[in-house]
Please model this.
Amino acid sequence: MPRKYIFLFLILILHGTVNASENIIINSIDYLSSHPDSRYRISGLKRYKARNFAEAFEDFHKAARYADKLSQASIAMMLWDGIGVRQNRTEAYAWMDLAAERGYRQFVVLQKYYWQNLNEKERNTALQVSKEVFENYGDTVAKPRLESELKKVMPATGTRLKGAAAGAGNSVRIHLKGPTTDITEYSVDSAEYYSPHYWDPKEYWSWVDTQYQKDLRPDVTIGPPVQMDQKK
Model:
């Protein structure tokens, strides 16, 4: 896969694996206010698409603090190719190594590719940088940050979950506002919006794993480098 297409492939990993109602929920202002991992990732992707690479890089860093693997991989890609930031292949490997922490196949492929293209000196440096990155952004420290945000809203969502369950026979619709750039309101079933896999930390991480493990694309093969028109 030419490297200029890899980023589009990464976007599809999450944003191409959800159904219509899930897409409405995870892009709503209500949901994003309690999910900084998704909020900053989506902002980063939008800014990247608009070629505001430096701002996108900052957003991906913010999302990475909350254990967002797609954002961590995006940081790696931008460092590897020098997009919006000074090129640094050893640091790029460290971030892709972090993105591959949970064994998600999409990122393991790229991690191996990066490693194969480092010389011995770069590898030694990359391993040291990787240790530092894991200390600050690894799941051990990053997941609790997001879980702390989810726990702030769990009492309220728990009450609403019970209400949704009690009225399961009579569907209750709730209205959600779209992204900040979209004033449209959407209607979704309350039982779906308050589903534990969005709000309970343990179930949320399991759901995230499921999204990454969906195999929408064939094996990734890395082709020769392709020059990109870059804006720094």
Notes: The first helix runs from residue 3 to 15. Residues 168 and 191 are 7 Å apart (CA to CA). Residues 3-141 form one domain.
